[in-house]
What does this fold into?
Amino acid sequence: MKLRWILLGPLLGVVMFPLSGLQAQLICSGAACSSLPINNAQLDQVFHSLETQYLNEILKDMSDASVMAGVHLSPSGVVNLREFTIGTQIVAGATEQRKLNVYVPDYGLLEDMPSGGFAVVPRIFIGFNVGYMFSGEPHDWSSTSPFSLHRFDFYVSGLNMSLSDMKEFAKPKKDEDYGGFSKSIGGELRYHLMEGGDRGAFWFAFTGMSLGVGYNRVEQKLEYTRANSKVKVKAGSGTTIIWNAEDRITYSSKMDVFPVSIRTGFQFLYLFRLSLGGGVAWAKGSSNLELKRYGRAYADNDYAALLGVTLPDSYLDLTMKGAGGPSRPTQAFASLGLELNIPFLKIFVDAAGNREVYSASAGVRMVF
It folds into this structure.
């Protein structure tokens, strides 16, 4: 069984935030409902198992992906900024994809239900060295006072973008469509713990070390539809219910992310700047999801298959709403960045993450 709707973020805490205001409904309609190997009480049990074992996992994964996408506030290839820069980047966060089995007490199993999170946050950013902006370049960067304004870099970023504009780059698959928006606004202040060497050196140069604190608000809304989605419900009696349906999903989230990070790196062969670092992100916020699924359901088993008999079909209608948040209030992460040091124009890629959730970005910036 393959359901990809939970993987399309905007393109598409030590404990789990409790589900609040969760509502769900699963009903059968049609003259052939009595032929399905499930009654109303069992439908209610399936429904309860989905909300307690599955919906909260989706909300957790989607929230975690948004948090990790929010740690990117400045190009990590830039350890210490020495000028004014403006650029654009696109950040994608994702969690490890999982297959979950939802156990329905006294009935059976929903096999291989997919859970995963994905978030895309485009942004435009401006950054500048505070001392450079107010008094120009110092005579010698390596001799600046620890209290000098030249030790501080400041970045601001943000963008509000319709996801429909991204279909040119990420076309929906067959029987799929999506819409919505992604919005972010943030800022970061970085302090030069150590100044780097001569950036004009060809072979090798240390680019310094910096400590940064920031804030990023990431908001998303996703509207997603998928036709011809198949789910198999295996009953304890050995009979399987095949449920072919259309999925309609509305997902929204608002996350406030507060990352603290340390970064160091070096430049080699003049053209390449590599950075390494890590940090911790504190997050608070919530995600909301509404799932509607309606379609034909029928029972199938080995006896019917052998006899070439198709059992009567009916229609199952599911409506489920829930709210949740990140799996925990903090996420530790490691970071890696690479920048091409072309005069006046820099092209960069970044990555950050841990074993469970990760993010990556790519962008371009100009320096003045």
About this structure: Confidence is low (pLDDT under 50) at residues 1-24. The first strand starts at residue 23 and ends at 29.
